[in-house]
Structure formats: structure tokens, C-alpha cells
Amino acid sequence: MQKIVHLKSKKHSMIIKVGRVPEILHWGANIAKIDPDLILSTERPISQARLDVDVPLSLCPELGSGHFNAPGIEGHRHGEDWAPVFEMKALTCDEQSASFTLEDTVAKLELLIEVKLDFNSDVVQKRITVKNVADKEYCLGKLSSTLSLPNHANELMTFHGRWCHEFQTQRLSFEHGGFMQENRRGRTSHENFPGLFVGSKGFSEQVGQVWGFHLGWSGNHQLRADVRSDGRRFVQAGELLLSGEVHLKEGEEYQSPWLYATYSNTGLNGISERFHEFVRANIIKFPTKKARPVHLNTWEGIYFDHKPEYIMQMATEAAEMGVERFIIDDGWFIGRDGERAALGDWYLDEKKYPNGLEPVINHVNEQGMEFGLWVEPEMVSEDSNLYRQHPDWVLSLPGYQQPSGRWQYVLDLQNPDCFSYLFDRLNDLLTRYNIGYFKWDMNRELVQPGHHGKPAVHGQTKALYRLFDELRLAHPDVEIESCSSGGGRIDFEILQRTHRFWASDCNDALERQAIQRGMSYFFPPEVMGAHIGPAECHSTNRRHAINMRGVTALSGHMGVELDPVKESAEEKQAFAHYIQLHKQYRDLLHSGRSFRIDPADQSQNIYGVENGEEMLITVCQLAMPNHALPAPLRVRCVEKEATYEVKIVEMPHTSFQLMKQRPQWLDQTLTLSGDNLEEIGVTLPILDPESALIVHLKKM
Ligand code: DGJ
Question: Where in this chain does the record put each Glycosyl hydrolase family 36 N-terminal domain (predicted)?
Fold first, then answer.
């Protein structure tokens, strides 16, 4: 068997030493060729007072071979076979992928470790499969993917959050000990986004070596980054299995979710660039190539107060503003007058819609808009016909009461009758009505996720994927939004089956600046639902001028979340203006290379997108400027020698409070070369707190 596997992509190499187990020797910048002395030159000494043999930090570290940190696999067979030690049995590989088959002939387990390096995007994918080859059942406790990192990866950036406050980041030293995140909420969650970054100390948006990780999974997970006492370090991610959740009979397998990872020597920008490229090419599957339609979603406009005539008026006004997809949110189905009842009863409420839904849909279509509808299929309200008929369809543990969440329970999707009921109801809606889009919500966590009394988050997550897959097969043109009280289910695996995320229930533009920044590390703008809300935000009561709201929503998959009928003519004109601006730059926004700029003033958020010909940069002043004068905006252009036309395409409309004289160029178009823009930059106006501007650059 060969001793070295060298995976190569456009810019990166991963070199894996093949011994008893596979072990990463290098993962990062491209290595042209393997030196004959590589194995010799990387041989480790053995330190005093430790084991007498060298223990590799393998792609699946084992307790039984002397890895004293988190093992990659845990489990047992009635208390036996709990510390397996594997031996390499077979290897197949080419320049972009390797599959290692390992076996433990004592514990009678087989492992398949798959590693792929995507040539174009430089993104690594890794997963592990374990097979029980004994006739006694094996109870699997854990099977995680491990990737080791060099010692100069010594700072962590992790995510935390909560409802209306998703994708917040924090920095941690990564010299000793480590970081661990366990998600037991049964959905990807607002709290524990399954991603993290490890980099060289002080890595920033534009500078430094960084390794980025994301686990593509929508259930429970464990994510950790550990530094061993010998200085070697690794990131490990996998599904968090509940006690007794996975039992493998003879010949049965468990396959871990994919761990996605990449490296950059240009800070976080290099990471997001690669993840975006990978997602665009391999994860998102839009049914057609059409531009992402601008939305109006009715939720914050009317909540549960559905009157068809009024909704049609909203639609007329939405179309006048430039909206292209009109979505009726929660409240349309039988008995749904508030959040305490009716989930599960997916039939139109004919009291609210005495003439059916068709007139509304026809009206929406006549205005040139697509029609979308809200559903929350996984849930049932205690006060619903479905629950009264099938209380046993709920995920639960016999003998216990479980707390409800938003007065609802989670349905057991592994129950075939329940699964068929849901498929039939959704299929019926999609067949009966001209629905182009489902907003698929999921508003509570799994508290007692029991299927026949056994832990079932794994099975529930798989069954959910199957429900999506079967519906998409039956209705391939329908697009789906993944919403879970806002950003509670955002990950690559759900994105294989959906087309947009509702990033957060928070439409407060200031909060959104942080949420969208965090999300932008992994997901490209075209899947990030971002809406203009009313002046006074419903989730924070904070007020923002339309400039801040419009600019913040403009750079994602844009929409509006309000009742246009109640808005002033002036506000409506402004919505139309931002929608038009979004459409003007939509191609660039939704296909270009996104980046962020390290601001001289930490109270600014600066981000942009470029495609080699054009660039759009947003400067958002989050709080009071740090100094009386702003630092020049220095822009890294692809071509230093090229000449660019530079002009401001959006600025606050109200008078500036902190500035009495504007730089003259604000009303002109500048002509500047790439090196001037990068090294000297352009002077900005003094922005008041919570306001923003957009600069456009065009190569001449
Ligand atoms: C939570 C979602 O995030 C909101 O956008 C809205 O759809 C409500 N649920 C409806 O109940």
C-alpha cells in the first residue's frame, strides 16, 4: 500500500501519511511535490514519561492506542469492545479523494473514512462510516470526523447566539485545553451554529492563516477543538448521539454527516470565498436560473389577521414597489387565529377565505408575482384536530409530561402514518394551488424526542430530509425556505433541499448587520433572506431611518416584511428605491465574490462583493465614530493597474449631524487606479451612527 496520499486542489494540498492509521502531515497551501525525505523529516521524537511509542493523531483517534483526548469513535457491545484499535485494510485514492478502509478484528468493526478535496473551491469534505461485522449488536456512542491542524493555529473564533441574535462570534485563545459545543436542541439551533474557525493569532477578515469548519447536519451535534498536552491540535465534529440512539445489528452501518472544511492564507475572506464557491457549485440546487425574486412576506404586516380583500390590496401595492414573490405567512389554515392552535390542520380556513385561496393567488399572479405559502409541517398544536385524532403521533416518552414550546409539539416523522399524512397534505396544497414557494417553519425544540420510547433525533432528522426529498421529487419547481423561528435551522445539509434561509426573526437593521456578517462566512448572499421592516422594529422596538434598513436588506436575498397599505407614500417610495437598487446590482450581489474589510474604526462594518469588473462596497456606521474624521476607504482591487470609476450610489437621505461640509466628490464620479484605491483610498463622509452608504466601482 502506498505510504503517502497527496490530495490536490487549485490552491491547496492535503498530505496524508498512511501507516497503521491515516494521519494528516500537511493541510494548507499547495505543495508541488512530495520530497523523498518527507516521512523521515516529519518523524516525531518520543518524550520522557510518556508512552514508549509514537501515537499518530489520526483521522479517527482511538483511546485504545493512547490518544488521551476525545476519541473519534465510542461505543460498546454490552460493555465490551469499547476501545477499538484499527488497522489499515485498504486504500483507494486519486488526486481529489481518498477512501481508507480500516478494521478492528477484535472488536469486529470496520471503518470507512472518506476525504475529498474539491478542486475548484479547495473545500475538504470528510465523513466516516462504521460497520458492525459481529453477530452481537453494537451500541454506537459517537462517530466524529477529526482533522488535525498545525501548531500555529492558535486562536479560535466560535459562534453563539439565540433567537433574534443569531451568528454572534467570540475569540478564544487556543494554546491549551480547548473548546466544546454540544447541541441537544434537535435542530441546528440559534445557539450552536455548527461551525468554527481556527487561525494564527490575530487573524482577521483580510489577514492571516485560517482553517474553517462546518458540520452539515440539522440535528444534534458535538463540535470541539482541542490542544493536546504535546501541542498537537485538532478539530472534531459529528452528530451528538443520545444514550442508546444508534444500535447496529450485524452488517448494519452508521454514516456520519459531512464535515466541510477549508483553509485560507488571506484571513476569513479566503474562507468565505471558498465556502461560497463550494455551496454555489455543489449544495444549492435552484430549479431554474432565474434571478432571486424580491419578497413580500405578510407576517409582520398582518400576523394572524387574514382578510383576502385586504391581502390582495397588499399584493397590489407590493407589486407597485417592485416585489416579485408574495408570501402569505402563518394564519391561513383552519382555526389558526393565534399561536396556540391548529398546527397540523393543513386545510384552508374557509371562514377567512370563503372564496378559497385561488382568487388571492390569481390576483398575486396577475400582478406579475409568484405566490408563496407558509407551513410548519413538523408541528402539532394540542388544540388541533390532528392532535385530537392522533395524540400518539407526537415525539414523546411514555410516562412523562413534556413542556410544550409555543404551545406545540413535534410530530414523529418516523411514524409512517404521520409521514404519509404530512406528505399528502403538503402534496395536496402544491397540487391544488399555484404555489411556487413554501416558507417551511419549525418553531420549537425537541425535548423528549422519543420514537417508541427510544431516542430519535437521528431518525427524525433523516425522516425530515426524506420528507423534503419526496416533496421535491413530486414538485421539482417549488422552492423552499428554511425558517426555524428565524435562523434556527441553517446548515449545508438542509440547504441541499432548500433554497433560502430566513436568517433571523430580527429585522432590526443594526442587529442584522452582525447576524448577516456571521452568516456570510459560510453562506452566499443569494440564500440569506434579508427584509426591510417597518421603521420601528417589531422585535426590538428600535427605530431606524430607511437608509439603514434599506442598505442592510439590500445585500442579501431581499424582501420587505410589513404592510405596504399602512405605510406612508414616502416610505413606499423608499422601499421601491431600495428594491430597484437591489435589482440593479442583483447579478453582482448573487454571483460575485463577497468580502469584508478590516475597518480602522471598529464601530464600522464594511463589506462588499466584486466580480472583476464591478464592485459594490457598503460602509455601515454601527455606533458613534471612533474619531472625528473617518479613515479613508482602502479597497483591494483585483487589478492594481486598472482604472476604476468610483461613485456613491446610496447615502443617508437626512442631513448629516456630525459633518458640516461634505467632501466634494460625493456628488461626482472619481477615476482612480487600483493601486491608489488600495494604498491611499478614498475619503468618506462622516456617517452618523446607524447609517450607511454604498460605493460602486466599475473597471474602465
Ligand atoms: C416564526 C418565523 O420565523 C416568522 O417569520 C413567522 O413565520 C412566524 N414563525 C409565524 O408563526
Answer: 22-248
Q: Which option is the CATH number for 595-699: 3.30.70.100, 1.10.3330.10, 2.60.40.1180, 3.20.20.70?
A: 2.60.40.1180
pLDDT-derived band of residue 369, with 50, 70 and 90 as boundaries?
very high
Residue 20 annotated as binding? no
Does ligand 1 lie within 6 Å of residue 374's CB atom? yes
- Rounded to 5 degrees, φ, ψ at 168 are -80, 150
In whole angstroms, what is the distance from residue 204 CA to residue 222 CA? 26
Residue with cell 374557509: 350
The closest alpha carbon to 89, from 99, 102, 79, belongs to: 102
H or E element that contains 425: helix 416-432
Structure confidence by residue, pLDDT tens digits, 548-602: 999 999 999 999 999 999 999 999 999 999 999 999 999 999 999 999 999 999 9
What pLDDT score was predicted for residue 653? 82
Query: Mean pLDDT of all residues in the chain?
Result: 97
Ligand 1 contacts CB of residue 552 (under 6 A): no
SS3 397: coil
What mean pLDDT do residues 133-146 have?
Answer: 98
Question: Residue 1 has what pLDDT?
Answer: 85
Q: What CATH number belongs to 57-283?
A: 2.70.98.60
Closest CA to 24 of 92, 91, 115, 153: 115
Q: What is the pLDDT of residue 638?
A: 79
Class for the domain spanning 295-445+455-592: alpha beta
Residues catalogued as catalytic? 441, 505
**3-class secondary-structure state, position 103:** strand
Give SS3 for 171: strand
Q: Output the pLDDT for position 637.
A: 81
> 670 in helix, strand or coil?
strand
Q: Is the CB of 441 under 6 A from ligand 1?
A: yes
Q: Does 505 appear as a known binding residue?
A: yes
Residue 675, annotated ligand binder?
no
d(CA 583, CA 156): 37
pLDDT tens per residue across span 438-488: 999 999 999 999 999 999 999 999 999 999 999 999 999 999 999 999 999
Instruction: Return the domain boundaries, the chain.
Output: 57-283, 295-445+455-592, 595-699
Under a CB-based contact definition with an 8 Å cutoff, are residues 524 and 594 in contact?
Answer: yes
